[in-house]
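for ur thesis appendix - F-box domain-containing protein. copy paste whatever u need, i formatted it the way the template wanted (i think)
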Amino acid sequence: MKDPTEFPLLHLPLLAIKEVLSTLSPLDLVNFSLASLKSKKVAKYFFNQHRELQYRLWLDIEEELAVGIRGTEKTYYFKLISDKTKDGLREGDKLFKYSEDPLTDFKKYVEYAIETFCWPVSQLYFDLGAFIVQNKSIIDWLKFQVEPFSCFYLHSNIISDEYVSYFLNHIEVDSYLDLNTKMSDNFQLIIPGSIEKLVIDQSNFVTIDQLSRFDCELIKLCHTKISNQELSQFFKNWMTSKSNINLQSFEIHIENREALEAISNLPHKVIDPERVRTFHRWYHPFPVTGGIDIKRDDGKIATFFIEDDMEFLNLVMITH
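the 3d part is after this line
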């Protein structure tokens, strides 16, 4: 943190202080507030008068711990490091701080930002392999320190059944889950009803029965073992309103275009390959040329097409 003597503006009139504070980045605003009890009160008062700033926190719990402070278009990062030579250095919008106990100092910084400025935590990146022994205590800390997350990303190179289950049982999530963790083949993933968007990067454990229970609006599965025959049954269940009623977008990695056979044995309509329609996926509009349509028993339509994302082919389903 900066030395309190670096803040002579505390001796200025309050109006002048406000003008100076309005030019500070959120990183410098936090540092200023840490200079003394008086500076903390001034910074807290200033921010309470400027709620339109709407800063929020992004937490990176990885081998290198970081707190991101997101404003309008920029994200500022406070990063805890083990290299003393970089203590206090800045690289663009990043501020580096040396710590002998990074996890403890990380928690203190987050708690301080929440308590002083009421900045909510909107995103979490959590490497379950970075602090294995402390995973559950970190999750317990998150539960009592932050409000529901808008979205979170869990990843690891270790079998993470226990930690993923513990996380989902203890942390409330508003909207988005990106799961990129190794799981055992028989893992049963229970998704909270509040999750609207679900991405599973290593979905070898996901069975057709589990998929049918994921009542999300958007689902993406990568590296899956689900067969074309199982996909056909999944789409049939959707057509008869037996599962995934709220589904708006579904993507799944496929090995080849034969996956379209999962649709060919269902009632369907092949769209003119010259016809271009505009749909929405992840809330963004995009054009689709041709495609194949199926209809649900309540009249809702799902359009299928194959998308090449360089490394894989994706079978995409958009409902409308």
